[in-house]
Specification:
This protein has 19 helices and seven strands. It is mainly alpha-helical. Helix 14 runs antiparallel to helix 17. The longest helix is centred in the N-terminal third of the chain and has 24 residues.
């Protein structure tokens, strides 16, 4: 492991403009949204511009008690699956809830403007982006604040309010849709959005392009268990997406800040959708006691965890005597509002969708279709881009996968059935996804999808266990939302 004393340095990564001022104005003071360009400008704000990474990651089994002497309150509350103290603090659960609904408001206002302009064909690109953006934020909300999707219970499980119209009242009261209803609305928006979405943007990686839309749709259909759609959506990737996955080997010769910049770069072929998030996730490695600890990270990233029995290309660093370790994925740009007073807002470019996830979704779908040899070839190619010293004779075989990832009774329990061989492969893919997206919260969604038990240990305290079906798998509704009538989750 590489060790490095790190001091924060600040560079401008991204400047992004939005229409929040427009949305906060009284109607008489608003600029009329009456051209395609104005609608496009409005849609810049149709993506959640806050981060969920720290919330999701801390709730997963990727984090441990590092025994740092102090931590942020929200870090401890996430670790224990608790409702966070109601504040407007950055990177809190309520903060992300609000960010998603703010993004939805932008999308709905854009769709309203499109209707008012006659819903003409020249507005189809904006319509496609707005629908996909609206679907994405609702999907993230239901993924956090509801129990996992299960068709047997979805018609009665509490979802989240699916908002399709701009708010016209000062305080609007919303009723929660069921999970089934939310998924139906999401699917409708995705299918309609896919018809119209384009690639022609000045900064395409900050918008839903055709490939970003397909990657998001593949995530949605993976959760629903529609393997044919996942495969069809990813056909353009093929079975060996040469040059389209993240080039971790190239990071090995980069300085740490260059690695941070490269990870979320719009020039990286794998990155399909990037957002400039108002977040301090880049500081988590030294502010969070409950994080990837130096003592425990080999359990996930040691050579023994590689199916090909070779070291990984993942370069870990530490800045606090190895108490916690991190991969350099986040580079913070601090935008000063008052330089003299040192006041401003931190921003980090975050990757929301990538070819790496897209391809792993494809591999899992092939496994669930019983296409094991195809999955072998695809998983081998993916691992080859992450493995130091890979050679053509390093093969992925069913025997290796089954031996490395034996079936453990009642460990992976999705709503659908799996054969023992499928179970071993799904576990292998989930562990690969866990590793590749460390610090980004992706593991939490697999914890929910597969109903994985999580044990969180804290020194001098009883082990906190998130059992199967635990109510805490659905975040509690933020207090300010429940105060306006949004029904609370059971506890």
């Amino acid at each position: 492991m590489k060790k490095l004393k790190i001091t924060l340095s600040l560079l401008i990564l991204i400047s992004i403009t939005g229409c929040d001022d427009f949305l906060s104005e009284k109607p008489d003071n608003r600029t009329e949204i009456d051209t395609p360009d104005k609608i496009s400008e409005l849609l810049v704000g149709a993506y959640p511009q806050m981060s969920y990474f720290d919330i999701a990651e801390t709730m997963s089994d990727n984090v441990f008690d590092s025994n740092m002497p102090e931590t942020l309150i929200k870090n401890e509350q996430n670790y224990n699956w608790e409702l966070q103290t109601e504040t407007a603090d950055i990177d809190t659960q309520a903060y992300y809830w609000d960010a998603c609904y703010q993004a939805i408001a932008h999308a709905n206002k854009a769709l309203e403007a499109i209707d008012q302009l006659g819903n003409t064909a020249d507005l189809n690109p904006q319509k496609g982006e707005a629908l996909l953006a609206r679907a994405y934020s609702h999907f993230m909300l239901v993924s956090f604040w509801s129990q996992r999707y299960n068709p047997a219970t979805a018609s009665t499980d509490l979802g989240i309010p699916y908002v399709t119209k701009p708010e016209t009242e000062l305080v609007t009261k919303y009723k929660r849709n069921t999970v089934a209803e939310v998924f139906e609305f999401i699917e409708k928006d995705i299918q309609e959005g896919l018809k119209y979405v384009i690639n022609d943007y000045k900064e395409p990686k900050f918008h839903f392009t055709k490939n970003a839309a397909k990657a998001f749709a593949s995530r949605f259909y993976l959760v629903k268990g529609d393997w044919d759609k996942v495969i069809a959506l990813s056909d353009d990737l093929g079975n060996r997406p040469v040059g389209k996955l993240r080039d971790f080997a190239s990071y090995d010769v980069m300085a740490i800040n260059d690695q941070r910049l490269s990870y979320a770069s719009s020039a990286a072929e794998t990155n399909l959708l990037v957002v400039s998030a108002n977040t301090i996730v880049s500081r988590s490695y030294y502010s969070n006691r409950f994080y990837l600890s130096g003592a425990r990270y080999p359990e996930i990233f040691g050579t023994a965890t590689n199916l090909l029995a070779k070291p990984w290309y993942y370069n870990f660093y530490s800045s606090n005597s190895s108490i916690t370790v991190f991969l350099p994925k986040f580079y913070e740009y601090f935008k000063y509002s008052n330089v003299t007073a040192g006041i401003g807002d931190p921003y980090v470019a975050e990757v929301l969708l990538s070819n790496d996830e897209f391809f792993l979704n494809r591999i899992e779908a092939h496994v669930m279709k019983g296409q094991i040899q195809v999955a072998n070839d695809e998983l081998e190619y993916f691992l080859s881009t992450r493995t130091v010293g890979y050679v053509a004779t390093d093969k992925v075989t069913q025997a290796k996968v089954v031996a490395k990832y034996p079936v453990i009774a009642d460990e992976y329990t999705p709503f659908y059935t799996m054969t023992p061989v499928q179970t071993s492969y799904v576990k292998a893919i989930a562990e690969t996804r866990r590793r590749d997206f460390v610090h980004e919260g992706m593991r939490w969604f697999d914890v929910k999808r597969f109903n994985i038990v999580v044990r969180h240990e804290t020194t001098n305290k009883p082990v906190n266990i998130l059992v199967k079906g635990d109510n805490r798998r659905a975040l509690q509704i933020p207090l300010h939302a429940s105060n306006t009538g949004v029904e609370l989750n059971p506890r």
